[in-house]
Design brief:
14 helices; 8-stranded mixed β-sheet; disordered N terminus; 5-stranded parallel β-sheet; single chain
């Protein structure tokens, strides 16, 4: 796993342009010297610090010099060292337009495309990604074994949806007038992107299938959405018995359930059953926010969903633009209210669709959150320590055998070194106010000078 040159050969990717180290064997001890440290928790930089990594763990953090004998020394020269970034909600396998995936792709197509998706996540400084719907199991395994390059993947497997729910992607022309039609499957379901289940027995079967395949958490669709055609966004999906069955089955494996959801009615049903993370959740009341906080649950919103720039999306149907603008105005203070009620919030790009579009949205999301949550620090916290706390909910299913999202002794060595101070300038980790008018092609973030995941350096452009 530590032979980065072997990874390159197997995946047939050249990362030398991004500065990835290609030595046959990486040093066991790496010392970051003279760095300003953002530890993922505190709203300040700890100046002139030193951080020693041994194997895949941070073993010492000190304001005093550390013995460097036998260590590779990376002289930060006042640059910022911080935890690797965490994306709490992405779809690495849904890497084309929905219609293209459904009608003109197979599992091979999306799997091949996911290799580049994963590489670019890592090169943007994201060392862990929670995949919230799709057949990402093989991708996760091959990253873990060192055959391809990418972030640590937390796969949910196919999202679980009721008939008529947010994960029912059949077309009008598909069979669908009898629930007994054996051929009534969308391509999404055939490829393992989603799974339609009705009633407690089918929900249990779907949850257990994902756990069998390696899910670190379970994703259900508990309400309507904007990207599917036949489920209005106000609908509540899955009965209480079905939701509670999913939670119980996940808990039997030591993990938890996450749910796509937007409304009070649906969120309160989820809380009644013990669902731990609410994905999106824009249209909830302050009373519901208080209940989420009291339960210790998380909200994982992609804030571009209530951005006025969303109406500029060239793929947005003209008929939906007035609704998009109205909702963005009505819920403009969503982030402010979440913080007011001390809800735990995690960063989410909701990476989905054509990679170049999704990558631009991810970088825009970083900047846009600073506008909606009022500070760079709050957004950085959501991308590091709070996200790490959420990932730990996977318990024994957690692929990370150590603490994530912080720079402290004993934590896993997921680290990025930045030329600049992200507490003052979010652009140094890629944040930008440009979205649809950003450059269409992926460009490396030049201010990310070192990227380390699990003690392995994947990028180092320092002289």
């Amino acid at each position: 796993m530590r032979s980065v040159s072997r990874i390159f050969a197997l995946v047939l990717l050249s990362l030398m342009s991004s500065g990835a180290i290609a030595d046959e064997a990486q040093p066991n001890r790496i010392l970051f010297r003279n760095v300003n440290l953002f530890n993922g928790v505190d709203d300040r930089l700890l100046t002139q610090h030193h951080v020693l990594v041994e194997g895949n763990k941070i073993v010492k953090v000190s304001a005093n010099p550390i013995n460097s004998e036998g260590a590779l020394i990376i002289n930060g020269e006042g640059r910022t060292l911080m935890p690797g970034l965490i994306d709490g909600h992405a779809h690495v396998m849904i890497n084309a337009h929905f219609d293209t995936v459904e009608k003109d792709m197979d599992l091979g197509d999306i799997s091949i495309r996911s290799i580049r998706v994963a590489e670019r996540f890592l090169m943007d400084g994201f060392t862990s990604v929670r995949d919230m719907g799709g057949p990402a199991f093989a991708l996760a395994r091959n990253i873990e074994s060192g055959r391809i390059i990418g972030p640590r993947i937390y796969p949910s497997g196919g999202f679980i949806s009721q008939t008529s729910g947010h994960g029912d992607f059949r077309d009008r022309g598909d069979p669908g007038f009898s629930q007994h039609d054996a051929g009534d499957l969308s391509n999404f379901e055939r490829m393992g992107i989603g799974n339609v289940a009705n009633g407690v027995p089918e929900v249990l079967s779907a949850v257990r299938l994902n756990l069998r395949n390696g899910a670190t958490q379970i994703k259900i669709m508990a309400g309507g959405g904007g990207s599917s055609r036949f489920d209005p966004i106000d609908t509540t999906q899955f009965s209480e018995a079905e939701v509670c069955a999913a939670v119980e089955a996940a808990a039997d494996w030591g993990t938890y359930v996450a749910a796509h959801v937007f409304t009070d009615r649906a969120v309160n049903r989820l809380l009644d059953c013990g669902v731990k993370t609410m994905e999106h959740g824009f249209f909830i009341s302050e009373d519901t926010m208080k209940r989420i906080a009291k339960a210790g649950a998380f909200v994982v919103p992609q804030m571009w969903g209530i951005s006025p720039d969303l109406a500029r999306n060239p793929l947005m149907p003209a008929a939906k633009i007035p609704m998009v603008k109205a909702l963005g105005e009505q819920y403009a203070d969503f982030g402010e209210k979440l913080l007011k009620h001390k809800v735990k919030v995690v960063f989410a790009s909701d990476y989905v669709g054509v990679p170049e579009d999704a990558e631009r949205a991810r970088r825009y999301e970083i900047w846009w959150r600073t506008q909606k949550f009022g500070s760079n620090f709050e957004v950085l916290r959501q991308m590091t320590s709070v996200a790490g706390e959420m990932l730990a909910l996977s318990g024994p299913r957690n692929p990370a055998k150590g603490k994530l999202g912080v720079v402290e002794e004993g934590a896993l060595a997921d680290l990025i070194l930045i030329d600049g101070n992200p507490l003052e300038d979010i652009s140094v980790i890629g944040g930008t106010d440009k979205w649809f008018d950003a450059e269409p092609e992926y460009r490396p973030i030049e201010t990310l000078v070192v990227i380390m995941k699990d003690g392995v350096i994947y990028k180092n452009i320092l002289p």
